Amino acid sequence: MNEINKKVISEILQKNYGVIPEIMVRIRRKSDRQVWKITDTNTNIYALKYLEKSARAPVIAAVNDYMHGKGIPVTPVLPTLYGTSYLDVNYGCFLLFPWLEGEHPSYTEPGMIEKMAILLAKFHEASHGYAASGNPIADSRLDWNKIYKKKIKKMEKFRVKASVSEDSFSQVYLSHLPWLQARANWVLEQLPQTALRTLLDSIKHDPRLGHGDYSHLNVLRNNHNELTVIDLDTVSLALPMRDISHLCTLIKQSFGEWSRERFQVVLNAYQQIRPLSPEELELLLLDQIFPHKAIRLAQKYFVDSSHVKGHATLLIEFERCIAIDKQKITELGMGPIWKE
């Protein structure tokens, strides 16, 4: 990644946005992106996002504008002095947003999971017409078979790394790997008997968007308890069940236990806005059997160097994930049951 420092940021803002920064604080940094909090000389506050991959910028800007126009609470993109919604540079691109004050809500707050499920359904419904209008969009999350198989390959790569290590995480991972693999393979075997292909064909004629990472970390709540969807970096054409399943997984991980009642609360709230067909519900349940969370935690341990200092916490999270999934699969009566 090119060095994005205060001098670079200041020049970018003054030359291309007419903003004279007074305070510049980097609040998030990943391998391919950064977010800066900017306060200008008039005390206006902005969020400046840098992306190393410029191809994402047109999508993020277009989705933000479209959803904002449809009444979905998102942070609108501020134009450059040239009227463009993002700024291309030879080492990436920048997008500027008004700063949004608020905090990330907690799933455990009374009524919050219902509010988030309803907002997700409204997001899905409002996305109707986006792709048909010729807006830029990715479709990498449409092929469930491809997604599942890619994650199965990841599990095998982690097995190779774990097999040459004697640390606690590696040993716990290896002890549960046969069950994780059995679940993943079971889901793959079920897919041909579902309506997945029919649903994928229909979405090509009536495209809808999925957020891709809908969670409390990508939602802000203001002082009036109103929610705003933030960070649309992962939006793509998608079936809605993956967003719902992802949200349900994060909720159960936060509570530390599986609850069929909470799962139903999410579904009921979502379906107030957008009812799910029996075929969609079947696929949602299948996706709940696939070990997405366990694989993600293993990836953080074996691949993501940024999590090196949190190995002990990752082990606790991984063991909690396994325990929750044992409860869930036993109660749902679907997929391979854990055997001691």
Automatic annotation (TrEMBL):
Keywords, alphabetical: Capsid protein, Virion
Top-rank taxon, per record: Bacteria
The UniProt record lists the keyword Iron-sulfur: no
Matches recorded under Pfam families: APH (PF01636)
Residues covered by the Aminoglycoside phosphotransferase domain: 29-274
Presence of keyword DNA repair: no
GO CC terms in record: endospore-forming forespore
Record-linked InterPro entries: Aminoglycoside_PTrfase, CotS-like, Kinase-like_dom_sf, Spore_coat_CotS
PANTHER family named among the record's database cross-references: SPORE COAT PROTEIN I (PTHR39179:SF1)
Protein name as catalogued: CotS family spore coat protein
Upper lineage: Bacteria, Bacillati, Bacillota, Bacilli, Bacillales
